[in-house]
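Revision sheet: structure tokens.
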Amino acid sequence: MMMRICGFALLAACCAGAMPAQGVSLTGGNVEVVASRRPYGTTLIAIEEMTNALAQVFGRPVPRVLRPTPGKVSIVLGTNEWSKAAGIEVAALPRDGFVLRTVGNDRIFIAGRDSPIGNAAASIRRGSGIQQGEYATLFGVYEFLERYANARFYFPGEFGTLIPRAERIEVPPLNEVRAPEYLVRTYYAGNHARWYEGAGRSGWTLNWLRTRMETESIPCCHGSIRFRYSERFAKDHPEYFALVGGKRLVAHDGSHPSMRNGHLCWSSGVVDEIEKDVLSYLRGEPASARGVCGWNPGKFAWGKNCAQGRYVDIMPNDSFQKCQCERCKAAWKDDRNYASELIWGVTARIAQKVLDEGLDGCVTQMAYHPYARVPDFPLPTNVLVMTAVNGPYSLGNAKAAAEQERRAREWMEKTGRKTWLWTYPRKDEEMDGAPSLCPRVWGRYFKGIAPYAIGAFAESETDRWFFNHLNYYVFGKVCWDSKVDVEALLSEYYRRMFGAAANEMRRIYEEMEETWLGQVVGRTVETPLGPVVRWPDTHMLWTEIYSPKRVKGWLDIAVAAERKLDAASDARGRVAFVRRELIECVLDHTRRYAERCSPAAELARRAAHPEERNIVSFGDFDGRVSGRNCGGPRGWYMGKPPFPLDTDVFAVGKASCRLVATNESAVAMEYLPDLKPETRYRLSFFLKTEDLRSPGGGGAHVVVNDGVNNSFPPRRSISGTMDWTHFSFEFKTRSKKENCRSYIRLIVRGPCHGTAWFDGVRISEVSD
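Predicted:
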């Protein structure tokens, strides 16, 4: 089902009987773009991109015409009467593949399968995103422009789109088919990724197309929740849901996102319902036949994230819950991937039913914790497996990288076909401002998966899209040809972008990559589940790793590079752009962190706001807390061991809370009856640490829980030795459940050794 068609076979099929190809010479005023009167919507984008680019090359407009003009060079785009007359047939091409052909000395044909959708070009200009469909002719246009017009599409906008002027474009004889090596080519920058000034949603869409990402999505991401089993069966069939802690995990409003859709009991009758849903969809029946609602209440629809084309995703909900009913307990195994036999057994059963009914469909499933292990029994031929692996940043740990490759190869051997990968070259919001620019390791990793994978999804959340721009460019090139020379690509990037300042800018980029790989994602620790990344805490990130001195050094190099270039040169403008959008963004975070963590600045702020109400009863440890259990509805409760007050070390008041960990966690907690639901608050506290050491990522931090199991930042603990430092975070509570109590905890999370002092703990209400 997932086999690729050999390019040579396609070439023979598409070019049979074709006339010998000749070279073509293009000059300004003697070239035109030919397309049918009513081209498909995706062909329209190809026409716009070709005419706009050639107009920049020649410095004059390039017309679009309805038929070739005698005496002119005609670039014929898409499928039309002229491409058919030239013997070009695109039906047999693989998805996203295209034909490049010259005929005589005045015709160039670029054609692939395009979709008959609306005006996709106008949709992109409006910033409404990509319309689903095939864009193969457009991909052929980009190939032509890059190869013969020397264009480069590093990122959208004047600084990242390089189309040099020329008097003439020479095109050699062409008669070839080009198609991507990887079927799956997709990335995700995250919902809060900021674009640079002058770019927006349309820029995201253009970059997706210009890097030639996939145009068909195979759903495989917790698809079972899109069938809306909670809404359909929670009331009448609670036994369909996982039994945990004596309760059935049906949907719960206001809880963790993974709980809102419930968790299924995979030994229950819900499996029959899943099977019926899959068969109904593949038979072409409407969603109303099964009562499946889309995102809009009351409107029936098959969710595209679970059912699309020939593919149906039945992967369980995220944060898999271990059902404790008798039949599930009998199925669980005593290893990390205890659910493999049960989940893959359900997958095999449903996929086989699809085959038995003669339906043209595939069942998709991800190899994911706790069902990542290959089962012992055979799988039907229409089961498509995606493997969840760490991705590019795992290359810093040879043992982890080898284990992930071994697992992917095992799935390939099991199914008789290559798997595809879900990778995690990402960062979270606590690392906003840190540049994740790593094109070399992205290139190395995604080149290396070719023997066992048909491509990958790069879940690469970031705060600024530009931090990943070169990663995405390299990713796109490797996905089309895994043999591409990544070092040559990057050398060309620095030379084309920065001219005489190429070496200086390359040094900055490469130092950023080395810093990210070596000091941010390369810090791994061994755990019972294997090696995991130990992310640096916020203080380490902005005072040691991206220290003001280091980032200022990068800025100095960029400033010197600018001065080296002619004031009117394009290269100087690009250096200035990168300085603003990359280096100064990082430097701004280092400065803002220094201001935010200053105890003196926070004490001055508090003095300026005497009206600010603190809902923590003993936030300033002024001697009224004895270090024993205070009892009652308010006051501090200590964990083990009991915490003493320290009247010699404090930031405000007369004492601090000192927690000493000798291996286990040390905790101090207070209930917060005054914490209101649906309200925004500011958590602020002072922290000092001394020789906090943990083998597995433990350390000191503060947690606020709003009563519905929703803990707020920071998620990463502070370790090492640190003088008094101020931390502050804003959060918004959710609706509180009945009989649930809100609380705040000061923690030195174990296993850990060392001492932490907390002082000036304050939670105050802020306006939205």
